[in-house]
Design brief:
The chain has 430 residues and is of the alpha/beta class. It folds into two domains: 156 residues, Immunoglobulin-like (Sandwich); 239 residues, Zn-dependent exopeptidases (Aminopeptidase, 3-Layer(aba) Sandwich), CATH 3.40.630.40. A six-stranded mixed beta sheet has the order 14-11-15-18-16-17, with helices on both faces. Strands 1-4-5-8-7 form a five-stranded antiparallel beta sheet, with no helix packed on it. Helix 2 packs across helix 8 and helix 6 packs across helix 8. The longest helix has 22 residues. The chain is elongated and about 70 Å long. It starts with 24 loop residues before the first strand and ends in a 7-residue tail after the last helix. The structure holds zinc ion (ZN).
């Protein structure tokens, strides 16, 4: 996935932005008499980098001033700037080319009410200045971030404990398994979102995050039409959702199936590789291509500017026991069923079933697959994936696969404990 090219064009609503400890923080209040409503979103209309490999400045033109918070992250070196209420109305090429200390930057919705700019750095830096200039003399308000090169030791001292701005969590919601509703919960996970665009086909203006959201919504609607399932989405709009949060959503709702939707992209040297692939979780990747893809998909939190050093231990962790093996059996069964059904509606990759260490598939108690619908880098795949006819056929095939999967489990559902992990005898795949 060409994720480095993938951050662009995001429409963002934002609200509160918490101050971040330790580092440069500058506040500016909306100008008195500003013609724009104080509570409306600011609009970023242009952005540019200036300077060299010793000192680099990012300037972003804004319709009005906003408060900002800025902090640094290590490994890889990044500068994160948080702002509220911002719509990024920038050229589609903005952020793709670096200059000086900045190799690239991206921007977009980070969480409801929060927008974020993340700069990738090619050296450790100090945030020398970070402020917003009030509009004056017909000039727009300007967000200015000045970065100065430093050494790694000095950099690491300043990385100390920023107040983490964890995106709005569903954590607050307790596990709710609707009383009296025996229909299985199926969590549909449209990959990426917000500041993380996923793969991009710049020539065709297609982003993975938009494509998979559209297909996820189609799938949800078709599952609802059957009346037999309770589909839930990990995101329903252009919002970034952390990988761990997607997993927790499935666990908190007692999901019986988790389907993560993606579309891959390869560089031109890989030729016209195309077709759909279905991935399940494994400790060792089934091949180098699967490893590359898992590495790429697992970068989502880093792309969004999360501090991964504080990430909790692997959700799988020591739960690598019988329950997890059972879950993996169910995942593999569903993957085969899905490949069989979708194979009639869509072209599959030459080896359509693969496995690797995808973070988003690590719920130990929820059978999970990651469905790469095709390649944004393939013109033919792209034409298919963006056509309503193909989208309808594939989502219908996915519903058929889900029906077949649960139908095969029916005899087991009279077992006293109706969780996938507990349901199956050790040899008991249908
Ligand atoms: Zn993806």
């Amino acid at each position: 996935m060409m994720w480095r090219e993938g951050w662009r064009r995001a429409t963002v609503h934002a609200g509160f932005c918490a101050a971040v400890a330790g580092l440069v923080l500058s506040l500016a209040l909306a100008a008195p008499g500003s013609v724009q409503a104080a509570d409306g979103p600011a609009v970023a209309t242009d952005a540019r980098l200036a300077g060299d490999s010793e000192r680099t400045r990012l300037v972003m033109d804004l319709s009005r001033s906003v408060p900002l918070g800025a902090f640094t992250l290590a490994d890889p070196y990044r500068v994160v700037v948080d702002v509220p209420d911002t719509i990024f109305s920038l050229p589609s090429s903005a952020g793709q080319d670096g200059r000086g200390l900045v190799s690239a930057y991206r921007f977009g919705l980070f969480a409801p009410g929060k927008a974020r700019i993340v700069m990738d750095l090619n050296a450790p830096v100090t945030i020398d200045k970070a402020f917003v200039l009030e509009p004056m003399d017909g000039q727009p308000a300007r967000l200015v971030i000045d970065l100065v090169k430093t050494d790694r030791v000095s950099f690491l001292k300043t990385v100390a404990a920023p107040v983490r701005q964890v995106p709005q969590a569903v954590d607050a919601a307790p596990v709710i398994i609707s009383a009296g509703d025996p229909r299985p919960v199926i969590v549909i996970d449209p990959g990426h979102g917000g500041i993380d665009s996923g793969a991009v086909n710049p020539a065709m203006g297609v982003t993975e995050k938009e494509l998979v959201l559209k297909i996820a919504m189609l799938l949800r609607d078709k599952l609802n039409e059957t009346g037999r399932y309770r589909p839930l989405m990990t995101r329903e709009d252009d919002t970034y959702v952390a990988l761990g949060q997607r997993v927790r959503t499935a666990q908190q709702h007692g999901a019986r199936l988790f389907i993560s939707l993606h579309a891959d992209s390869l560089g031109s040297r890989d030729g016209d590789v195309r077709g759909a692939t279905i991935y399940t979780l494994s400790d060792r990747a089934s091949d180098a291509e699967a490893q590359r893809l898992a590495d790429s998909e697992n970068k989502a939190d880093m792309i969004a500017g999360l501090d991964l050093s504080e990430e909790p231990a692997d959700v799988a962790g020591i739960l690598f026991d019988l329950a997890q093996r059972e879950t993996r059996n169910f995942s593999a069964h569903f993957a085969r069923t899905l490949a069989g059904n979708v194979g009639e509606a869509a072209r599959m990759h030459k080896s359509p079933l693969k496995s690797a260490g995808f973070k988003v598939l690590k719920a130990p108690d929820v059978p999970s697959v990651l469905f790469e619908l095709g390649y944004l880098s393939s013109r033919r795949d792209l034409e298919l994936m963006t056509s309503e006819d193909w989208q309808a056929k594939v989502t219908t095939a996915m519903v058929a696969a889900i029906e077949a999967y649960f139908a095969a489990q029916k005899p087991l559902e009279s077992a006293p404990v109706a969780t996938p992990a507990a349901m199956a005898p050790t040899t008991g795949l249908p």
